[in-house]
DNA sequence: CCTCCACTGACACGACTGTTTCAGTAATGC
DNA sequence: GCATTACTGAAACAGTCGTGTCAGTGGAGG
């Protein structure tokens, strides 16, 4: 389990990568920005890969907290979109997309399985929001796959164009 | 306009990045893999950024050729999905997603505007396939935005899980 | 007091980065 | 034949990368 200093630095590093991206982060600029040193980061996280892994887990924690918060039941898609389209969440979602793409290109290393895991997480939430009688039918699976696709595709559009009006009204 | 040797090397480099990714490509391994040298790549493309820009343009040419080939009219969405879900196109689409994410994280440099441009391209194709009487209405705009979101989201799912069966039947 | 432990600073190592310099070669146009 | 052009090879440049080494801190527990 992490020490106090470790979580403190992880939090600072997390804020850093939210604005600078995770793909080409390097230890020295990161350490300088959060008032630490490469020596300490390496001491606490073992290696750069360990740090990236911790940051990815940190981002995923944010995502899982959201999903737990959204809850289940009718109207999930609308509630999810409301959260996804909030301007305040854009850095997190850009980071999310970056990790997603990276895990596809480089299936090894700390990114491994990120994309697959996140698809599974969201599908599970959508499943929990379906009526029990369709939940385990092929039609139910198709329905939530379609809902997820719609949300993710709309998110891609929004992140690229920033045109929240057009995308949101398309989802209505 | 590019010389013969330039397009030849660009083609080889393009094949290389399709399997190795574009984000963290570096000149020496790339040059070695395609039987060239950093000296020549730099001579022909000016800089690494020039090379990346050329590669991005090359990938975009593939995409635009597809869109021209798909044509317009009813059934576009199905035809587009057929193309997107073809296993042979997976490397290209992974590269596409990588460039998309990168252009969001790093709005400057050779990646600039890639995501926005590709959204525009596809929306235009979908627009051309709409009946003339809805093409310029808010409802038409919303409809093609939704179609695009569905396709892109389904693509994300497919690239992560490889579960073509589930995703394709969700789109039917 | 003294030991242990979490943490930190300064520095160097080898590997790799994009790029430059200087040197050629081979073919083309006059 | 000669100059120009397109391309290529070898080596070096300064910089950054992740990581390791060696030396300390400061505070908490016995």
From TrEMBL, chains A, B:
Cited InterPro entries: Homeodomain-like_sf, HTH_TetR
One MF term in the entry's GO annotations: DNA binding
UniProt cross-references to PROSITE patterns, sorted A to Z: HTH_TETR_2 (PS50977)
Signal peptide stretch: none
DNA-binding stretch(es), residue numbering of this chain: 26-45
Keyword ATP-binding: no
HTH tetR-type domain span: 3-63
One Pfam family here: TetR_N
UniProt entry keywords in alphabetical sequence: DNA-binding
Protein name: TetR family transcriptional regulator
